[in-house]
Amino acid sequence: MPEHELWVTALFNQFLAAPAVALLNLAGITPNNPAAPWTNAYSMQVFVVLLLVVVFGLARRTFSVDRPSRIQTVLELFYGFIKGQTEDMIDHHPQRHFAFFGTLFLFILGGNLIGIIPTFESPTMFAVVPLGAACVTFLYYQGMAISEAGPVGWFKHFLGPIWWLSPLMLPIEILSHSSRLLSLTVRLYANMFAGEMVFLVFLGLVPIGIPIIFMGLHTFVAFLQAYIFTLLSMVYLGQMVSHEH
Fold it and tell me: Of 129, 96, 98, 128, which Cα lies nearest the Cα of 111?
């Protein structure tokens, strides 16, 4: 059964089909429908990114040292929150990672929340989007570990502290790190997909009153899952760049 095409996806397919097909061909992927290569998952995540860029571009104009606006106050609180969490989880040069974790949290949160708005869907309810975020996180913390400890020190991390246990520790560590991709993906995808389905079911059964309760629950889950994903990413990075570890 083909998915219902959102109006955002229809616009992307109407005006941006050719660039999408070109990018897919460069990656060696042949789209099933070259006339409509955009799916709801891809169009909505791009839409979320564009929306965040526009919102922060407009918010930047209101920044002031003497008379901070409300949105500036909220963003400063958010920055302080991310800064505090990062410093708690990462011992060495945590300031290097503020931008990444802040961007990751806002993207996931925006993707989670936008599904509440009628005619939109949460891109995080499609497995490919959480998987993409998990892959970016995985590559980031592995790259930062190589940058911090060097290739040799990074590889020693997988061998464990006792040399004669290295043949046993290496496959265990590789499996452990690989399972993090699955853990991050499934946790975000399953919670957002379930929340979206429950909300839509009750909206169809009782269109007035009851869905507001599930909308509030969906909002809480959206914030919680964005926080958990970001927090786990901080933990994984902290373990890899810790000199003591």
Answer: 129
Structural domain that includes position 30: 1-38
Q: How far apart are CA 72 and CA 181, in angstroms?
A: 34
pLDDT for 207:
61
Residue type present at position 192: M
| Reported pTM | 0.90
b/e 119-148 (16+ beta carbons within 10 angstroms → b): ebbbbbbbeebbbbbbeebbebbbebbbeb
Please report, rounded to a whole number, the percentage of residues in the chain having pLDDT higher than 70.
93
- For residue 159, the one-letter residue type is L
Q: Is 107 exposed, middle or buried (0-12, 13-18, 19+ CB in 10 A)?
A: buried
Burial class (CB in 10 A: 0-12, 13-18, 19+), 167: exposed
Q: Which two tokens stand for residue 213?
A: 């309760």
First-to-final CA distance of the chain: 49
Residue 228 within any structural domain of the chain: yes
Provide the token pair at 187: 């946790």
SS3 245: coil
Between CA 113 and CA 48 the distance in angstroms is: 10
Confidence at 158, pLDDT banded by 50, 70, 90: confident
What average pLDDT does this structure show over 196-203?
72
**Residue 168: inside a domain, yes or no?**
yes
